[in-house]
Every structure is written in C-alpha cells, then in structure tokens.
Amino acid sequence: MFKQNYFKVFCLFLFFLCVSCSKHDNSYFPLNKGVKWQYDVVLETQDGLLNQKYIFKNLGEDELNGTPVYLRQSLDGSILYYENSDEGIYYLGNKDTQTINPEFHEDRQLILPSKLIVGTEWEDTTLTKLLKKTVPSQKSAFELIVEIPIEVKIESLNETVTVSAGRFYNCMKVSMEGFDFKDLGNHGITMVSVEQTNWYALGVGLVKMERLETAKRKALGKATLLVELAKFDSD
C-alpha cells in the first residue's frame, strides 16, 4: 500500500510540467506519441529510505468529452490526461485502468501559462502525501494528507542539470512553496509546509525534481523526494 501511494504522489508531481505538441516536439515536456521516460526515485521519511524506478510513456492524442487531449501512461497502468489551451497547459485528471470498471477522476489544474517568462508567478494547491510514520507495535501508520496553497514561479531558463541520463543545458527551473496551519484533531494544530523545485529540458521534459514536506508535529518531522531522469527514448 505504501509503494502504491508513493507512486501516486510522484504522478501528481508530474502534473506541474510544460506541454506543447507537434510532430517533432521540442517543448519542455513533449507529448508526441512514443516518447518514454525512466526515473530514479528516492523517498526518505520517518520510516526510512525507499528507492524505486518509474516509467512513463506518451500514448498520443485522443478526445475527452469532445475536447482534444493528450495521454500519458504510468508504470501502474494509470492514464494521465492533458489539455493544451490558449491560456496554458492543464492537467485534466486520470483513469486507473487496472480497476474492473475504470473511471475518469477529474482534477483540472493549470500546469504552466502559455508564455514562459522568468519571474512569472501564479497560485495553485498541492496535496501532502510524503509525511507518514508507521508504528510497528500498533501495526498502524499516521499519514498526513492535506491541501496546501502554494506560490509557483519560473526562476530561470538557463539552468544546467546533470543526472544519470546526461547533462542538460538551458533548463527551465520552476519553484513551488507554501504553508498552512492544519487541525489534526487529537494531535492539535500543526504548521505544514511544502517546497519543491523542478527542472525541465527542452525536447526532453522533467529531468530533476526535489520536494520537501515538513510538519511541526514531531512524530512526522519531514520527508523528501528526489526524482532524476535515468533514461529517455523518443521514436
């Protein structure tokens, strides 16, 4: 169950990407059919360290309620839906194809505005799902899943990033941060904060992501997620 939740969190993080579609897609997050990514993912929580590898593949164009969309399939079989509008790029939701009767789960969010300019800012929200503490003696776990308002900003368009897949130049750096006070019932009111930085390479997409979630509640402390591109294939 923990690994399944972990993977769903990673999918959510990938919603904050730039999308543009053409036959030879040279955007910050290509959606042309056949493009495939493999990532090395490291999660560190109060429960310890977890290493995983995840794969995403573009399936091409389709329609959702008469609207042109672009599909991406994740390792667990889930299908992610994107729309490219005049205002910007939107994540529309996902469908879990492993269920008996797959249903589309709507979750429309602005990913990036149409004009990518350094200093551009916008508001959004994010869910915390990394903060978790297992109590073996009680065979139970406390998991903090709350919505946090965040400020998103394009910091740079000329970053250099080195990961397993290689060195990438002129990357776009996007930062996200925010906090809120949450009532945890018997555990009292706690401040929860989120910080995340994404780097995207033209013609490749997400090459690196770092995320930090912190809760003032001592039992949860903090959790980090590191995502780095290990392999990239384009038909």
What's a quick, concise take on this entry?
With about 240 residues, the chain is mainly beta.
Strand order of the largest sheet: 6-5-4-3-2-1-14-13-12-11-10-7
Mean pLDDT reading:
84
What's the number of extended β-strand segments?
14
Describe the biggest sheet? 12 strands, antiparallel
Beta-strand proportion: over 45%
Helical fraction: under 10%
Which overall shape is indicated by the principal axes computed on the Cα atoms?
Answer: globular
Annotation field: number of helices: 1
Distance from N terminus to C terminus (CA atoms, Å) equals 34 Å
Structural class: mainly beta
| SSE run | HEEEEEEEEEEEEEE
Rg computed from alpha carbons, rounded to a whole number of angstroms: 18 Å
Low-confidence sequence ranges: 1-8, 15-24
Defining traits:
single chain; mainly beta; disordered N terminus; two-stranded antiparallel sheet; 12-stranded antiparallel β-sheet; 63% strand; 235 residues
Any chance you could write out the topology, listing elements then pairs?
Blueprint lengths: L1 H12 L22 E10 L2 E17 L2 E8 L3 E7 L3 E9 L7 E10 L7 E7 L4 E4 L4 E4 L3 E17 L2 E18 L5 E13 L3 E11 L6 E12 L2
Antiparallel strand pairs: 1-2, 1-14, 2-3, 3-4, 4-5, 5-6, 7-10, 8-9, 10-11, 11-12, 12-13, 13-14
Protein architecture, described:
The structure is a single chain. By secondary structure, the protein is mainly beta. Helices cover 5% and strands 63% of the residues. It contains 1 helix and 14 strands, in the order H-E-E-E-E-E-E-E-E-E-E-E-E-E-E. It is globular.
